Amino acid sequence: MQVLLEQLEIGPDPTEVGRARRWARARLHGAGVDVDEPLAETLILLISELVTNAVVHTGCSAVLCMLLPRRSPVPQPWPVVQSVRVEVADVSSRVPCRRQAEDEETNGRGLELVSCLADRWGWEQEPGGKRVWCELDAVRGEPGAARAPVAAGNGRSRSGCVRALEASRPGVARGVPELTTALTLSAFG
User: Fold this and answer.
1) What is the pLDDT of residue 35?
2) Alpha helix stretches (DSSP H) within 31-140
C-alpha cells in the first residue's frame, strides 16, 4: 500500500488550531476523502484536540503529520480497510494523561475524546519531546460503509511520520457514526 505523508509546523498560538483544521481538510480533499464524510469529520476533530493539547500545554511549536493511504486508481471488488494516522510532536516530555473533567469544566476532555473516537492512540517519548498519535480505520470500496469510533487505550505502537503504515487489518467497519457527528457538531458548534 502506498502512503501519502503530509506535515505542517504549528506555531505556539492557540489560533493555530483553526489553521491546522483548514490544512487537514485541504489535504483530505486532495487525497480523495470527502470532507463531509464521517471519516473526515472525525479526523478533523482528533487533529483539533491533539494540536490544542500540544499548543496549550507546552506553549511551544509542534509538528502535525498525517499519513493517508493513497486511493487505488483501480476499484477493488471487495472492501479494503485502510488506516489514517495523525501524529503531533512537541517539545514537552510531560506524559499525556486522560483526566475526568467535571461537568462544569470547559477543558480537560481532549484525550477522552481521542480515546473514544480513535481506533488506536498512544504516545512515545522522543529525544527532545514526545509524539502523540492516533489512527482511524476506513473501509473503502463498499458503498455506504462508515468508519466508527471504538474505545482505545494508550498502548504503544509504531510511530514516526517517516515510517510507513503497516498492512491494514481486514474487517468491517463497526459502531455508531451518529456519535461521531454529534461530537463533531458539539465541538465546533
Assistant:
1) 85
2) 38-58, 110-117
